[in-house]
Amino acid sequence: MSENQPQRPAAPTIVKSEQQWKEELSAKEYDVLRRSGTERPFSGEYWDTMTTGVYSCRACGHELFTSNEKFSSNCGWPSFFAPLAEDRVRYIKDGTLGMERVEVRCAACDSHLGHVFAGEGYPTPTDQRYCINSVSLSLKTTE
User: Fold this and answer.
1) In a domain, 6, yes or no
2) Of the N and C termini of the chain, which has fewer Cβ atoms inside 10 Å?
3) What's residue 10's pLDDT?
């Protein structure tokens, strides 16, 4: 996340109707990916895994993060200190729930992934925590 975040949202390259998304995603996936929901902490598939691989958007398959950037933040959701590349995600100001946060979305299909936080003192190269919902991700292992 560059210092000028949040950036102007780019148009997604994968566009489907809400009906198409509902048909392709489970109810839980649809709630998080398309309605910006959040899964309960410590309940998702990837919150504590350190399996080697590439994490992709569950909605469209766009590669987003790798296990090289994943770290244990003990927050209950998968945490990464950076995306695979800056053009893989986009950022939007999020003022919901009485907080000022930065939402992270898939650059390809505009699906909600989670939020990014900075300045929390994590011992990572970026001092950022991409707090991502497990249900937003699919892991392709490379082990």
Assistant:
1) no
2) C
3) 63
Instruction: State the residue range of the domain holding 134.
Output: 18-141
Told to judge if 131 belongs to the known catalytic residues of this protein, a careful annotator would answer yes
pLDDT tens sequence across 51-71 = 999 999 999 999 999 999 999
Name residue, tokens 């398309």.
34
Which token pair is 69? Answer: 């950037």
Backbone angles phi, psi at 94, to 5 degrees: -130, 110
Answer yes or no: pTM beyond 0.85: yes
CATH code, domain with 70: 2.170.150.20
State the Cα–Cα distance between residues 130 and 13, nearest whole angstrom: 22
Is residue 12 in a domain? no
Out of 60, 106, 109, 131, the active site residue is 131
